[in-house]
Write a structure and sequence with these properties.
The complex is a heterodimer of chains A (202) and B (248). Chain A is built from seven helices and six strands; from the N terminus they run βαβαααβαβαββα. With 202 residues, chain A is an alpha/beta fold. The model of chain A has no long low-confidence stretch (mean pLDDT 81). Chain B is mostly helical and 248 residues long. Classes of the chains: A alpha/beta (202), B mainly alpha (248).
């Protein structure tokens, strides 16, 4: 997992929009199949149940309703959403809405997922929980994720590489490899976080 | 509901009292009791007229809803159509209905046609505007997200935008119902031989004021019933809009 970190308004979300093909770049180009976006606001359809919301990714690629629902339902267990298939977004908690949006992103079937501040709307307790299921699901489903955040600690905790962007106009001002050891060594993690922060405010 | 009935009752009581105290000629202002007895004695006539007017209203509203949804989709999907058609739609609403009504009678004759057309004409505008509002309420990122998942523009529209048109269309219909009753009465009076508007038009020169008022009561009840019917449809078809409102 690669984390992109940068100051507010530097174009992180725009970068993801381009990577996912929601926007066309003014110049330059992207290579490979577009990634599947998990937008910052969940962007769920208020009229549809959780299952239908998750199934949107499949329906968009032409899968019929019955099959799309069945395949979406398979993820509901893993993500702890069973029993809420018919619940509309306003009946779900913030953490559950994120999981529905994440299921939708997974179901797009793209090897690369683009997550735009996936946890910014969650309280700190739900956030830790959410990180756990995110890491677990990414590992078991063998996907790569590009995650945008402005939380250095989150970036270090989640990813194997952190890319630092400057303020507008954004350019890459630093790339940090995150050693596997930081997962078990709080001191090493703290040191790395410090270095990233320094680069960010420099 | 109970409060509304109570308020109506109080209003009738004041009306009744006012009539008997002021000694106003019942031909000018009949007291509620006379309107009540006219409702009963003219029930056959009023019932037949009610059926005619209800038919005109339902057909007109249906036509308005159908045309609005199609027009709404077209205007929503195409900026060219939005900038070319939308101003025309608004302009069409400023053409006085009396002019159109007389013309329609010339074109379509004295039967149901012109009435349905006028109801549809009057009802069309609020429905199309509300449909467009409903469609505009969907984040523009949602269809783009669906497209990034592989949907075509049209598929994205059906999947993530079209369902949002329904609450808008129903909200518009609620407004349309009330004004379309006026449209129906007007249409019947500009050339027809049946319906509640026609009953009122015939009753007044014959000094059957109570009958005219009875027809007004029936009309008001009809409008209320249609309004309630759409409220029910909202509850059944678009429950999420209600829930969101009660959450606020």
């Amino acid at each position: 997992m690669v984390a992109v970190i940068g100051p507010n308004g530097c174009g992180k979300s725009t970068l993801l929009d381009i990577v996912c093909g929601l926007l066309k770049p003014d110049s330059g180009r992207t290579s490979g199949e577009p990634a599947a976006l998990m937008p910052q606001q969940e962007l769920l359809m208020p009229w549809a149940g959780a299952l239908d919301n998750a199934a949107l990714a499949l329906r968009s690629s032409g899968v019929n309703r019955t099959e799309a629902r069945a395949r979406a339902a398979e993820w509901f267990d893993t993500l702890g959403l069973s029993g809420f298939e018919q619940a509309r977004p306003h009946e779900l908690s913030g953490g559950m809405r994120q999981r529905v949006a994440f299921a939708r992103t997974l179901l797009a079937g793209r090897p690369l997922l683009a997550l735009d501040e996936p946890f910014s709307a969650l309280d700190s307790l739900t956030r830790i929980e959410a990180r756990t299921w995110l890491q677990h699901t990414l590992e078991t489903s063998g996907r790569t994720a590009l995650i945008v955040t402005h939380d250095v600690r989150e970036a270090v905790a989640l990813s194997s590489k952190v890319v630092v962007l400057s303020a507008r106009p954004a350019s890459v001002i630093g790339e940090f490899e995150v050693p596997v050891a930081t997962a078990t060594d709080p001191a090493a993690a703290a040191l790395l976080e410090q270095r990233i922060l320094e680069r960010l405010v420099a | 509901m109970v409060r509304a009935v109570l308020a109506l009752f109080v209003l009738c009581a004041i009306w009744q009292l006012g009539c008997s105290v002021s000694g106003v000629d019942p031909l000018v202002l009949p007291p509620p009791t006379e309107i009540g007895s006219a409702l009963w004695s003219d029930r056959g006539l009023l019932w037949d007229a009610l059926l005619v007017t209800t038919g005109e209203l339902l057909l007109g509203l249906l036509a308005a809803a159908g045309v609005s949804v199609i027009a709404g989709f077209a205007i929503h999907m195409s900026t060219t159509l939005r900038s070319s058609l939308y101003p025309l739609l608004i302009a069409s609403q400023t053409v006085p209905i009396p002019v159109v009504a007389s013309l329609l009678v010339v074109w379509l004759g004295y039967d149901m046609g012109p009435k349905v057309a006028i109801v549809a004409l009057v009802a069309f505008f609020p429905v199309v505007v509300a449909t467009l509002e409903g469609l505009a309420a969907v984040s523009e990122r949602l269809p783009r997200l669906a497209q990034s998942f592989g949907a075509s523009r049209l598929q994205a529209f059906w999947l993530v935008e079209a369902p949002a048109a329904l609450p808008g269309a129903l909200a518009g219909l609620k407004i349309a119902v009330v004004i379309s009753v006026i449209g129906a009465v007007f249409a019947e009076q500009s050339g027809g031989d049946s319906g509640l508007g026609f009953v009122i038009q015939q009753a007044l020169p014959q000094l059957l004021t109570a009958r005219a008022w009875a027809a007004v009561v029936v009309l008001a009840t009809l409008a209320l019933a249609l309004f309630g019917l759409i409220g029910l449809a909202q509850r059944l078809l678009v429950p999420w809009t209600r829930l969101r409102q009660s959450e606020r």
